[in-house]
UniProtKB/TrEMBL annotation:
The species this protein was found in: Sphingomonas taxi
Pfam families referenced in this protein's UniProt entry, alphabetically: HTH_18
Domain HTH araC/xylS-type: residue ranges: 196-293
Gene3D superfamilies the UniProt entry points to: Homeodomain-like
InterPro entries for the chain: AraC_XylS_family_regulators, Homeodomain-like_sf, HTH_AraC, HTH_AraC-typ_CS
Protein name as annotated: HTH araC/xylS-type domain-containing protein
PANTHER family: ARAC SUBFAMILY (PTHR46796:SF6), HTH-TYPE TRANSCRIPTIONAL ACTIVATOR RHAS-RELATED (PTHR46796)
SMART domains: HTH_ARAC
MF annotations from Gene Ontology: DNA-binding transcription factor activity; sequence-specific DNA binding
Keyword line: DNA-binding, Transcription, Transcription regulation
Taxonomic lineage: Bacteria, Pseudomonadati, Pseudomonadota, Alphaproteobacteria, Sphingomonadales
Length: 296
């Protein structure tokens, strides 16, 4: 395949060909040369896939769901939330076991795009090593995943796909490669692994009291240092981060018609009045009004 050829489904791992997979949209036939994207509903399956020449990003559009991945013999398992990412470097075999129905978007970024991004960032492409990830969150990649969904729905041309490919390539090199890891580790903020550990603890213990000490322990830092570095990285205090996670879950439960008292318990609020007060500050209405509006 030459660099001028469009990426197509034949360049992927073949997941779309598995029984029970429902394709919603793909870039097949759109002439995208630096990117291939497909949006689909995946049914539970277990499979092992040979390496591809290009880098794969899978973004979960629903969830949570339990996923087990095998990265060339390195096993990882996670309960991945909506928006969570699976990042697979080019040239890596992988296995997967999906436990539930899941909507995803698969994005393949041509390897030459990452080489070009590395050079722009002052990194020798020959030394570049992309770090695989399961269940990680990256707001830039998540935004580009949403953009790709829109581009597929609107059947946009390769001109726009090239722009997204450049952004994704730069982000993968700058945030998900060993070449940049040393620089990020010495910065004032937290590493992506530390943020993921904190996020995972919050999701697993959302019904419970969550202290700064427990979050700091997950990140492997003293509480005071953790709080400063967390604020530097996220722009929020640990308290606000936990509160936002509780309120996001409360909103989702209310959209499904859950009782307010039940929502308070499941999201870790000490009492219903506390939920009502904090929900009003965040969303501008009481939980009761929000649920009523959502159900009509």
């Amino acid at each position: 395949m030459t660099g001028a050829d469009a990426l197509g489904v034949e360049d992927t791992h073949g997941i779309l060909a598995l029984p029970g997979q429902t394709l919603i949209a793909s870039s097949e036939g759109l002439g995208w040369r630096t990117l291939f994207a497909s949006r689909q509903i995946e049914q539970p399956y277990t499979g092992y896939f040979g390496a591809c020449a290009d880098h794969l990003i899978v973004m979960h559009l629903s969830g949570p769901v339990r996923i087990e991945r095998d990265f060339s013999g390195e096993r990882a398992c996670a309960k991945v939330q909506r928006g969570g990412l699976f990042i697979l470097p080019a040239g890596r075999d992988f296995g997967v076991s999906l436990d539930g129905t899941l909507e995803t978007i698969h994005i393949y970024v041509r390897g030459t795009m990452l080489d070009a991004a590395a050079r722009e960032l002052g990194v020798d492409p020959a030394t570049l090593a992309i770090m695989p990830g399961l269940g990680v969150h990256d707001p830039v990649i998540e935004q580009m995943g949403t953009v790709c969904c829109t581009m597929l729905a609107e059947r946009q041309s390769g001109f726009f796909a090239d722009a997204v490919a450049r952004i994704l390539a730069a982000r993968i090199v700058s945030a998900h490669s060993s070449a940049m890891h040393a620089a990020s580790a010495s910065a004032a903020g937290l590493s992506s692994d530390q943020i993921d550990a904190v996020r995972d603890l919050v999701h697993r213990h959302i019904e419970e009291a969550i202290t700064v000490d427990s979050l700091a322990l997950a990140a492997g830092l003293p509480p005071g240092q953790f709080a400063r570095r967390f604020k530097h990285t996220t722009g929020r205090s640990p308290y606000q981060f936990v509160m936002d996670a509780r309120l996001d879950l409360a909103r989702d439960l209310l959209l499904r018609g859950a009782a307010i008292a039940e929502v308070a318990v499941q999201t870790g609020f000490t009492h219903q009045e506390h939920l009502t007060r904090m929900f009003g500050r965040r969303f501008g209405m009481t939980p009761g009004r929000f649920r009523s509006a959502a159900m009509h």
